[in-house]
Amino acid sequence: MLTGPFPYYSIEPIREGPLLVQWMMAFEQIPKKDWYSILGADPSANMSDLKQKYQKLILLYHPDKQSADVPAGTVEECIQKFIEIDQAWKILGNEETKKEYDLQRQEGDLRNTGPVDAQVYLEEMCWNEGDHTFSLSCRCGGKYSVSKDEAEEVTLISCDTCSLIIELLHYG
Ligand SMILES: [Zn+2]
After folding, report:
1. How far is the centre of ligand 1, averaged over its atoms, from the C-alpha of 137 (Å)?
2. pLDDT score of 3 more than 50
3. Rounded to the nearest whole angstrom, what is the distance from the C-alpha of residue 56 to the centroid of ligand 1?
4. Which of helix, strand or coil describes residue 84?
5. 114-169: CATH homologous superfamily?
6. Band of pLDDT at residue 14, cut at 50, 70 and 90
7. Could you tell me which residue ranges the J domain spans (predicted)?
């Protein structure tokens, strides 16, 4: 049954099921996929939109829909895609897991708000006696600002106007 250099990719076992399940379990261990983009959906899409997109894609990439004579690479890609799409729907098609995933996403977004525009030492920022903050002008015209207390712990400061962030360096 398992023949060829990529036994898991061959059509036969996939049709039988168990290997596909193994694959899916393996994929569940891989975090940080963008399930929305896998479904070609916007994170703000509602449940029926998501379902529609899922149903369309899952049919398109279903292993049973692939002809047996496509090049191995293509079959492999289709199966991977199929698994991803299925996994995306498992997460986004359920209110609980969707909520959990959305939260994870938000946290991730904060950590990668955008590219770090510059690395600066606190000493390079302007001290504002008035409100006890350090600040620096952003090239957008906005301002990076951090309070004296926060400056001790904070390493990333986001601009109050655009999505740029700067990294605050501390002397060793
Ligand atoms: Zn800015």
Report:
1. 8
2. no
3. 40
4. helix
5. DPH Zinc finger (3.10.660.10)
6. very low
7. 34-105
Residue 30 reports pLDDT greater than 50: no
Statement: 18-99 belongs to CATH 1.10.287.110: yes
Dist CA 10 CA 116 (whole Å): 44
The two tokens of residue 78 are: 């289709």
> What pTM did the predictor assign?
0.47
CA of 32 to the centre of ligand 1 (A): 28
| Selection from 83, 78, 156, 77 nearest residue 116 by Cα | 156
CA distance 156 to 84: 33
Which residues have CB less than 5 Å away from ligand 1 (the ion)? Answer: 138, 140, 142, 159, 161-162, 164
> Residue 172: pLDDT band by 50, 70, 90 thresholds?
low
**Cα distance between the two ends of the chain:** 60
So where are the chain's domains? 18-99, 114-169
CA of 116 to the centre of ligand 1 (A): 11
Cβ-Cβ contacts under 8 Å for 115 (sequence gap 6 or more): 164, 165
